[in-house]
């Protein structure tokens, strides 16, 4: 069982997402002082909750709450500091929106506490590399699990698309991780052309035909590829 009976992705607290009919937008809420673009803007509980509710009103079906920056060279925070940042936000959101709540963490204990606070999904930004027990917690609680591709703290393949496919496949193979409601996650970046992405995910990325795929488009890549106004495109 993968939690994907029919076309449903079953997540925590008895909730589910219908797959295939339409895409679901995940809004990122960084409760941090040092994240990429919004560090410091939503550090307080009230500011983070307000931003999350605004995102939902604009179409987001999932709000992802994170308490530690993942930008290069960002400072590592302690588990207690991370939990102090995210848990009050999750608790506040639980009673104010029907949108799904995701916890952005690689720590098993933070994931467990966040699910207890109301989170439906665990978004492991290190793809089970730091604390693999996070998969056990998702499996036992029934929470959704996003296994994110990352090249940090490991040897990467030269071919960036093959690297994404193979690393994701390796993390989705164990019976326990397949028992949890797993979803593969990859970023879309300028380093991979659309043709190469289609070829690799179609021919070599069998994992993406077994599990649903969450994709994240880097803003720089989107800005480079979207048609410019006035160019006739």
Mean pLDDT: 76
Given helix and strand content, the structural type is alpha/beta
Total number of helices: 9
Identify the overall geometry. Answer: globular
Span of the ends, CA to CA? 45 Å
- What are the secondary-structure elements, in order, as H or E? EEEHEHEHEHEHHEHHEH
Rg (CA only)? 17 Å
Number of strands: 9
Low-confidence stretches: 188-204
Helix content: 25-40%
Strand content: 15-25%
Main β sheet profile: 7 strands, parallel
Strand order within the widest beta sheet:
3-4-5-6-7-8-9
Structural notes for this entry:
The strands form 2 sheets. Strands 3-4-5-6-7-8-9 form a 7-stranded parallel β-sheet. Residues 188-204 have low confidence and may be disordered. Helix 2 links the parallel strand 4 and strand 5 (100-104). Helix 1 packs across helix 2 (79-94), helix 2 runs parallel beside helix 3 (108-117) and helix 3 (108-117) packs parallel to helix 4. The chain has helices at 45-57, 79-94, 108-117, 133-141, 160-171, 175-179, 194-203, 207-210, 219-225, and strands at residues 8-10, 16-18, 26-30, 62-66, 100-104, 121-124, 144-148, 181-188, 213-217. The protein has 233 residues and is an alpha/beta fold.
Index terms:
233 residues, 7-stranded parallel sheet, single chain
SSE topology:
Elements: E1 8-10, E2 16-18, E3 26-30, H1 45-57, E4 62-66, H2 79-94, E5 100-104, H3 108-117, E6 121-124, H4 133-141, E7 144-148, H5 160-171, H6 175-179, E8 181-188, H7 194-203, H8 207-210, E9 213-217, H9 219-225
Parallel strand pairs: 3-4, 4-5, 5-6, 6-7, 7-8, 8-9
Antiparallel strand pairs: 1-2
Helix pairs in contact: 1-2, 2-3, 3-4
